[in-house]
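Hi,

Apologies if this is the wrong queue. I'm a grad student, and the batch job for Ubiquinol-cytochrome c reductase cytochrome c1 subunit from Novimethylophilus kurashikiensis produced an output file that my downstream script rejects. I'm not sure whether the problem is my script or the file. Here is the sequence I used:
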Amino acid sequence: MKKLISLLALVMPLLAQANEGVHLDKAPINPANQASLQRGAKMFVNYCLNCHSASSMRYNRLKDIGLTEDEIKGNLMFAGEKVGEPMGIAMNKKEAKGWFGATPPDLSVIGRSRGADWLYTYLRGFYRDETRPTGWNNVAFDKVGMPHVLYELQGVQTLQTEEVKDADGNKVETHKLVLDKPGKLSPAEYDATVADLVNYLMFMSEPAKTTRMKLGILVLLFLGLMFIPAYYLKKEYWKDVH
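Support response: The file is valid. Your script probably expects a header line. Output copied below for reference.
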C-alpha cells in the first residue's frame, strides 16, 4: 500500500503538468451510439493498432457494440487468429523505441487515464514542426514523439503566434492552429471521425461501464423501494423503546 501511495504521488503531478495551461475542447461523444463506436473501432484497428497494443482488450468484447463474430473476423482482425485473443501487435518494442524515441504505450486504458476531452484535443492538435525528429508537434502534448498518423485525413496544420493585449493592456502571445494544406476530409468531417475514435477509446477503457451504470441505477431504485418497508419494520420493532 505504501508503494502504491508513493507511485500515485509521483504520477499525479506529472499528469497535472501534462494538462496544465492546455485548453481542452469538449469531446462530442455518446457511449450509447453503437454506430459511432463501430466506426471508432474501425479507425482504431486501421490507424492505431499498428504501433499501439491494447493487451487488456479482447476482440470478442466488440460484440458489446453490436458487431457479430463474423464481422469482427472479416473486418477488424488483422493481427489475431481467434476472436478471444487480446489486441496485440507484432512490432518489436526495442525497434519501436529506436524509431520513435520511446515505446508506444498500450492504449487499453488510455481513456481512463487521459479523459475524452484530452484525447479529442490531442488527436486534432498536431501541427508541422521541423525541429522535431518526426516533423510533428502537438498543442496538447509538447514535444510529442508520435507522428501524425491521421494527417492524410486532416491535412497539415501550422501553429501561428500572435500578440494581443489582455484586459490590463499587457501584450501576451496567443497560439492558433491554421490548416495550411487540406486533407481528404473537411475539418467538420475530421472532427466527427476523431469523435468516433475517442468514443471507442473510452469504451475500450471500460467496456462494462454502460452495464455497470444501468445496474447501479437499478440497485439504487431497489434500495429506495426497500427503504419504505424497512423503515416501518424498524418502527414496529422499536416502538416499545421509542
